[in-house]
């Protein structure tokens, strides 16, 4: 699980639907990726970082432990 990403989503009031709309993928695919069943691409990571207006690095945002 991506703890910082989940925290930032909650802080901004964004949902998996917002991510799916931004990335052009299904909500179920977003859920699989958020639950670490498959990986986000670098492009997807950058787009999520932009959506969140996150000032840290992609590595920080997608840290898993």
UniProtKB/TrEMBL annotation:
Entry's Gene Ontology molecular function annotations: DNA binding
InterPro entries assigned: Cro/C1-type_HTH, Lambda_DNA-bd_dom_sf
Domain HTH cro/C1-type, residue spans: 5-61
Coiled-coil ranges per UniProt: none
Protein name (record): HTH cro/C1-type domain-containing protein
The organism of origin for this protein: [Clostridium] innocuum 2959
């Amino acid at each position: 699980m991506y703890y910082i990403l989940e925290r930032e989503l909650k802080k901004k009031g964004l949902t998996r639907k917002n991510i799916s709309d931004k990335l052009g993928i299904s909500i179920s695919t977003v859920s699989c990726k958020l639950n670490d069943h498959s990986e986000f691409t670098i492009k997807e990571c950058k787009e999520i970082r932009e959506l969140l207006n996150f000032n840290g690095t992609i590595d920080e945002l997608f840290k898993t432990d």
